Predict the structure.
Amino acid sequence: MWLSKLSLCPSWPKRRSRKLTLATSSPLTTSSSYDSQDSITITEKLQSISAKEVASEASEAICNKIIETHRQLLTLPNYEPGNKINKLLGDLVPLCTQAVDNSVAQEILDNPKVQAILPSLRDICSKSESCFEFYSAAKIIGDGKDGPEKALERAKNFRYYSNYVELAWLELCAIRAARQPSSRKIAFIGSGPLPLTSLCLLQEIKREIRPGSKPEDIRFLNGMEFLCAQAGSPEVDLREYDVVYLAALVGMSQEEKEEITLRVAETMRPGSLLVVRSAAGIRKCLYLEFDIATDRLLQKLEPCLTLHPHNEVVNSVIVARVK
């Protein structure tokens, strides 16, 4: 585990046309018992039926695309960057980050065939993301002879760099909302081969330093250091950090993530903040949703807030305070 530190859809039955029959005791031309209120009620019911049909059609179309994408991903020999996988994932991400009605999102997630492929789909997304980060990190580093400034310039030209910047902004806002004092020391667990979140956080915090800043704030900007160790292990002492991040791919099940989260929290000091990435809506097809409010976690953590993006950012942000 890298630690970066800052010093398929069911076939639907064909829709049948619905006939509306009004039972009356006398011809409609002479009936006085049928009033405008009945007409409004019937109209509302018809509108409700129509809305449900539209929602079902929308969820069915998205389900079919997700299932077909998964089928094609399974045929690939590996998940190294290439034209086919880039196209498949490039279409899948916007499909799963589009804004949809809550009922549509729930229909998609409740679809039995979608549920059946979700563990496999998330695993493929995780592996392909890792391959892509190794590939991109090598491109950014280059031959290492032209210095860090050129490498930083290449990093900013990285395809998803703007997404990382937006996510960093979102997370910094969440941290500040949960904590009044400035957070000078941040540890990021699970930064992987391409620590763009740590880089973006450092760049954003640098912009806040002005003439007359405290010496400790300026010392904070020396940069990053890295450690390769198991999260929550004794050699990783997190008591000196104001904020600790857990990346979205730290743990691939609720149980795994919960166990790691507890081990990490045990090594943090009371009052410090833990930032965990999660997912909501149909973004859960790409990343696992994390429940921060289980009985075990609540014994050690006090949930502060959860933010769900509605733009191109995929991950939700959970902030909790260590008890």
In short: The chain is about 50% helix and 10% strand. The two ends are 25 Å apart (CA to CA).
